[in-house]
Amino acid sequence: MKSVALNERFFEGAVSVEIVDGACKPWRLPHDRLRLFDNGHVGNAAVASGVRLRFATDAAEILLRVAPQPQLDAGPQKFDLTVEGELLSTAILPAGQDEVRFSALPEGTKTVELWLPQHGPTTVRELLVENGASTGLVPDERPKWITYGSSITHCSKAHSPARTWPATVARKHKLNLTSLGFGGQCHLDPLIGVLIRDLPADFISLKLGINTGGSLGARTFPFLAIGLVRILREKHPTTPVALISPIISPPREDTPQKAGQTLNDMRKELADACQRLRDCGDANVHYFDGRELFGADLVENYLPDLLHPNGDGYEKLGANFSRVVMEKMLPEMRRGK
Predict the structure, then answer these.
(1) Is the CB of residue 108 less than 8 Å from the CB of residue 83?
(2) 3-class state of residue 134 by DSSP
(3) Nearest to 121 by CA among 67, 80, 58, 202
(4) pLDDT in the model for residue 337
(5) 3-state SS of 174-240?
(6) Which of 139, 265, 285, 326 is the most exposed place for a label (fewest CB within 10 A)?
(7) How far apart are CA 166 and CA 181, in angstroms?
(8) What is the C-alpha separation between 45 and 30, in angstroms, rounded?
(9) Residues near 119 by Cβ (< 8 Å), separated by ≥ 6?
(10) 68 φ, ψ to 5°?
């Protein structure tokens, strides 16, 4: 097999790519400014949820070499291969191993995306195809979607990386995804607003609330949400924005968290924040109740710890996001073109 000369342009869904001794490490934050972020945030950003290698090839077999991982609590890492958005194969990387192989790809030249694991950091050392096969970069002209949220957007317990709820939505609607889901770290940091402001975007979704129970109260939560939108509006003045409140979590619905709020309080406050923005002229921001995406009917079978969906639950969440959010936002995106 022959090696493909990789660079940062092969990566989609990454905010930055750090090149270390010829290997590529994708980050979901700017790697040259990591010192500006909390250590927990940095650890999450090293995990490539939503990140994939994208290229055109006529290869029938692809080999990916990565830095080997130790045994992870979440189990072995998985890599997905999609062709034209369709999931064709999932490869499992046992702890300590460094190669994943995809064989029997469709004949002819096709656009391939190799989705990197959504748990545990990944460093890509080498991409190989069989001798005689061609490879090339493919400009991704699909509408750009940025989604920000907590572990429920990070989706470490999804079945595989192309089956997180953001990935299922992006593949269904042919969107170029950047997932800024950070487990435990969705605290409406102003620098996240700056980051989203500076990235290209045709649609932005902000799934807020579940992490802020210990950090933000009624005085700060809704107004930091407003501030987040106002920051990104500096360069995205009319881009459709969806403000999404927490999905259901039965122990937290009516029980105040450390900052004194229940999830029901947060939903009311976020809805009010959205209305304040609209009252002040922002007609392109819309509120969605998270329980419409994942509600009481799904708890018994799909919410095992009463906080995070399981693998099937994330796919239910993605299907409901497509039905509830994208049904409204896709026309908004088309009008913005």
Answers:
(1) no
(2) coil
(3) 67
(4) 61
(5) CCEEEEEECCCCCCCCHHHHHHHHCCCCCEEEEECCHHHHHCCCCCCHHHHHHHHHHHHCCCCCCCC
(6) 139
(7) 9
(8) 9
(9) 47, 49, 72, 74, 77, 156, 157
(10) -65, 145
- pLDDT above 90: residue 332: no
CA distance 175 to 265: 32
| Cα 228 from chain centre | 18
Rounded to whole angstroms, the Cα distance separating 134 from 131 reads 9
Quick: pLDDT tens for 260-277: 999 999 999 999 999 999
Q: Across residues 13-17, what is the average pLDDT?
A: 98
What SS3 state is found at 155? Answer: coil
The DSSP call for residue 142 is S
Q: What tokens does 120 get?
A: 């545990």
Please report the sign of the dihedral spanned by the C-alpha atoms of residue 274, residue 15, residue 99, residue 76: negative
**Taking CA 44 as the corner, what is the angle to CA 333 and CA 257, rounded to the nearest 5 degrees?**
85
Residue 161 pLDDT > 80: yes
| Three-class DSSP category at 321 | helix
Which residues lie below 8 Å from residue 42, measured CB to CB, with a gap of 6+? Answer: 29, 34
Mean of per-residue pLDDT scores for the chain: 96
Under a CB-based contact definition with an 8 Å cutoff, are residues 47 and 154 in contact? yes
How far is residue 100's CA from residue 94's CA, in Å, rounded to a whole number? 10
Per residue in 89-136, pLDDT (tens digit) is 999 999 999 999 999 999 999 999 999 999 999 999 999 999 999 999
Average pLDDT over residues 51-76: 93
Cα 248 to Cα 78: distance, rounded to the nearest angstrom: 28
**Is residue 237 pLDDT above 80, yes or no?**
yes
Q: Do the Cβ atoms of 93 and 71 come closer than 8 Å?
A: no
